[in-house]
Amino acid sequence: MSIKSIAARLFASQVVKKTKVWSSSPVATQKKVFQELIRQAKDTQFGLDHNFHQIKNPADFAQQVPVRDYEQLKSYVDRVVNGEENVLWKGKPLYFAKTSGTTSGAKYIPLTAASMPYHIEAARNAILHYIHETGNADFVDGKMIFLQGSPVLEEKNGIQLGRLSGIVAHFVPKYLQKNRMPSWETNCIEDWETKVNAIVEETFDENMSVISGIPSWVQMYFEKLQQKEGKPVGEIFKNFNLFIYGGVNYEPYRAKFENLIGRKVDSIELFPASEGFFAYQDSQKEKGMLLLLNSGIFYEFIKSEEFYKENPQRLTIGEVELGVNYVLILSTNAGLWAYNIGDTVQFTSLAPYRVIVSGRIKHYISAFGEHVIGKEVESALQEAMEGTTIRVNEFTVAPQINPAEGLPYHEWLIEFENAPDNLAAFALQIDGAMRKQNAYYDDLIIGNVLRPLVITIVAKNGFQDYMKSIGKLGGQNKIPRLSNDRKIADLLDRE
Prior knowledge:
Layout lengths: L2 H21 L2 H16 L3 H5 L8 H7 L5 H12 L13 E6 L5 E6 L4 H19 L8 E4 L7 E3 L2 E4 L1 H5 L5 H4 L2 E2 L2 H4 L4 H12 L4 E5 L2 H15 L3 H4 L5 E5 L4 H11 L4 E8 L2 E5 L8 E3 L5 E7 L22 E7 L6 E12 L2 E8 L13 H12 L5 E10 L8 E10 L4 H15 L1 H8 L7 E4 L4 H8 L26
Parallel strand pairs: 1-5, 3-6, 3-7, 7-8, 8-9, 17-18
Antiparallel strand pairs: 1-2, 4-5, 9-10, 10-11, 11-15, 12-13, 13-14, 14-15, 16-17
Helix pairs in contact: 1-6, 10-11, 11-13, 14-15, 15-16
């Protein structure tokens, strides 16, 4: 046991104790965060425009500050981007995290001196909770790889901007610098395929113990490693025993990963975004991720079925229930106020508060009123794959409203690594799992409004080719699990 691993265990114990203090008083913790956010921002332009001086509680806040998405907050953000001070938060941001927008083009999400430390602390604490629970700290002596965006930053009106993962790369603690891979030069490569090939060359003969990234892109790295060495990743990296991921649900990828690795490895799920670091998996034994109530973010929750009503009820942490689908609304110390990030969550525990990401409020299928969400399609696929040798590389779901013949249906576009012998039977298994989860979908099948789902096989690397064609290969980019239109479905290569 090294000095480094002993120190990690001691530090982990301290962090877990601190976490238990705030997580055991969730309502009081969020009240304190709320009051501090209002106090700090009351003299900003946004605070003056929304009467922060008169806001005493979340009910006042809900009256004064409407829920907004980026497009609706853009007039304020544009002023910050143009160099104004004290607009959304005191002073100027340290950085802008640049992300892809929808109707507004590129989005510039502010990162402030107040908010930035929480991004770093949360990622660190997720690992420390794992060490404390499992006692496993030996991996700290091995090499760690983080598949992320380029750390090369641009500048806009005196403020640096880049991808969040690239910005975070500048904050890697000194004690991890020697263990961290890939090299700075390789990390700066913009083209994703070139970058992954370079990472393979740099790492194949190293003592890799921790690998982190979005599952779909780590899978690409694993496949290239296996092609180069001709053996499972777990044999190439004999001490690799911890996979850290975020951005998408790992479960649809798990069987494929374990096949590529050749054995099971522990995993830690994170819930980070440019707008904040919201949750991390604090236990290998419990379902869900610990919602970070003490990290400069005040949370509100709107039931997803009420979200598009004129005045939906905005709930605070003490008012949520288990298993309900909520739209996540944020107010942060980076100057985002009643901000709709677009993610939906469900609580798996209320003591402490743990969540799973259930989907995106804009990513759903409801062509016939069924309102199918991401969690449902992921769970259905996972259930159908259990106990089989079927492995899936990637998938997405879209409605087929006007088929050439027969009733409409949901089309599942799947890229298989190992396809089922009987595709029709596998489709029926998924369909059955969907019907158990979603009563509206079940009613549509029973009423002959829809026929059971249809699987379309996507060509090998079809999803990668699609992402490359729209300029979103690698990094933080992800394929939507489902869409209410056929924009993605019609562009995918079929077999």
